[in-house]
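Regression check, guanosine-5'-monophosphate case 113:
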Amino acid sequence: MDNCIFCKIVNGEIPSSKVYEDDKILAFKDLNPMAPVHILFIPKEHICCADKIDETNSSVVAHIFEVIPKVAKELGLEDGYRVVTNCKEQAGQTVFHLHFHLLGGAVLNTTLA
Ligand code: 5GP
Ligand code: ZN
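Current build output:
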């Protein structure tokens, strides 16, 4: 999609530090990490947010959640980690291409909001 930062990362127009890639998804380091490990998992297809997940595209989300444990293990997160998605402005979404934050490498704040 035009003017979508994460679509540009998928097609190589914007560089990223990739930690995992296959034909359906990409995972790369967050530019502004909020934890010692902060990785973003995205579908290569443009889905704007979690609110637009439905029966036509949920398989890519399932795939992301299959890959997360493998990447977490590779990154040494056996003590635990958090997976978060912010959906729409009120929840703090700033990039409107579906992404899941993988956060770990430290004791994380447990406040939910
Ligand atoms: P959101 O606030 O939408 O949940 O998360 C967007 C995330 O994308 C933020 O944590 C921000 O640091 C990250 N981000 C924004 N632009 C870029 C970029 O160009 N490259 C990378 N690697 N991360 C980005
Ligand atoms: Zn996009």
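Comparison notes: The beta strands are 18-21, 25-29, 37-43, 81-84, 100-104. The pocket of zinc ion (ligand 2) is lined by residues 1, 4, 6-7, 46, 97 (CB under 6 Å). No diff flagged against the previous build.
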